């Protein structure tokens, strides 16, 4: 009989602490100083909101907008991904479009498992950036893309991120194995979830990633 995947529970307090400690440990503000946050629906919602508040404090209250993208991954042989929500990027025809020129764009999700979703998000944003660059009537300042995840699973990746992101602007809270991470927004009984998170998440179960850029 196959063994069940181990569950690790993360409470709201632990989530907040992981994000805050990651900002400080990786020197995120000094190294990247985001100007635009993009939350991947729906796991990136709460981490993005917590991260925004922490970054605003680090950056002296500077405005830091959050945009949302929705992606749906169909688990099949082709592992196709479809957009369910995206950012308005047509500067010529859409008055609500966002200019990427000069932006430092931080894409946020709760977990990097197969890397398929993150890879797709970066690829599609790079296409939008290229279109804006080609049609820009003003001086163009090349934007920079970064990734922030609460957890990175140390499992084989199907997706690939650009080397410049992995080297300079990939920010990870904690490296974990293949365990099933249960986040607080997944809970039906939040009190029981918090109890499990407090009693079962031990320091030995999660290993802080080394910061190779220091």
From TrEMBL:
One of its GO terms (molecular function) is hypoxanthine phosphoribosyltransferase activity. Gene3D superfamilies: 3.40.50.2020. The keyword Glycosyltransferase applies. InterPro entries: PRTase-like (IPR029057), PRTase_dom (IPR000836). The keyword Transferase applies. One of its GO terms (cellular component) is cytoplasm. One of its GO terms (biological process) is XMP salvage. Keywords: Glycosyltransferase, Transferase. This is Phosphoribosyltransferase domain-containing protein. The lineage of its organism: Eukaryota, Metazoa, Spiralia, Gnathifera, Rotifera.
């Amino acid at each position: 009989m196959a063994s069940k995947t181990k569950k690790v529970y993360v409470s709201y307090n632990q989530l907040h602490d992981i994000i805050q400690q990651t900002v400080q440990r990786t020197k995120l503000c000094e190294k990247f100083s985001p100007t635009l946050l993009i939350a991947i629906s729906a796991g990136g919602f709460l981490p993005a909101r917590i991260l925004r508040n922490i970054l605003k404090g680090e950056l002296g209250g500077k405005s830091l907008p959050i945009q949302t993208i929705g992606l749906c991954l169909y688990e099949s042989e082709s592992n196709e991904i479809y957009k369910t929500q995206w950012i308005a990027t047509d500067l010529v025809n859409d008055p609500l479009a966002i200019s990427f020129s000069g932006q430092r764009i931080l894409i946020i999700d709760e977990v990097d498992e197969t890397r398929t979703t993150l890879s797709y998000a970066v690829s599609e944003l790079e296409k939008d950036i290229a279109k804006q660059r080609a049609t820009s009537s003003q001086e163009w300042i090349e934007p920079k893309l970064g990734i922030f995840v609460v957890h990175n699973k140390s499992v084989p990746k199907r997706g690939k991120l650009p080397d410049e992101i992995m080297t300079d602007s990939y920010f990870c809270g904690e490296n974990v194995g293949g365990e099933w991470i249960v986040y607080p927004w997944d809970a039906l009984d939040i009190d029981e979830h918090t109890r499990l998170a407090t009693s079962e998440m031990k320091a030995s179960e999660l290993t802080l990633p080394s910061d190779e850029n220091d």
